[in-house]
Amino acid sequence: VQLQASGGGLVQAGGSLRLSCVASGLAFGSAAMGWYRQAPGKTRELVARIYADGSIYYADSVKGRFTISRDNAKNTVYLQMNSLTPEDTAVYYCKASLGYSYWGQGTLVTVSS
User: Fold this and answer.
1) CA 35 to the chain's CA centroid
2) Residue 55: what pLDDT?
3) Which SS3 state, helix, strand or coil, does residue 94 take?
4) What is the longest distance spanned by two Cα atoms in the chain?
5) What is the DSSP-derived secondary structure letter of residue 96?
6) Strands ordered across the beta sheet of 17-24
7) Hey, what's the torsion of the CAs at 94, 97, 101, 103, to 10 degrees?
């Protein structure tokens, strides 16, 4: 199983980014897909998760600003991030859960004030 995350970068506060995570080697349509983030000196936290049935969970800190979606035909999960703040600066990881859990390599998001 491989998860390849991309789309991170440097953006000014108030800006937007879209992260993508392409999965291979698993039954993507049956997996719960999640985005996590880890800021410097902090523990990794769940940002958003989308289940196989399409149901979605968001952390309170990103509700109304971030949108998670999936394209099962492309084995890809997305995280649209709007109204970014410096507090969103972190390495963002995607995770696939299907019995076992699998992590991608992370993509760095830096939001400048």
Assistant:
1) 3
2) 98
3) strand
4) 40
5) E
6) 2-6, 17-24, 76-81, 66-71
7) -10
Q: In this structure, which long-range contacts are made by residues 100-105, counting pairs with CB atoms below 8 Å and at least 24 apart in sequence?
A: 102/1, 102/3, 102/23, 102/26, 103/3, 104/3, 104/4, 104/5, 104/21, 105/3, 105/4, 105/5
Q: Which two tokens stand for residue 29?
A: 């349509």
Q: What is the pLDDT of residues 20-59, one digit of tens each?
A: 999 999 999 999 999 999 999 999 999 999 999 999 999 9
Q: What is the DSSP string of 1-46?
A: -EEEEE--EEEETT--EEEEEEEESS-GGGSEEEEEEE-TTS--EE
pLDDT at 31: 98
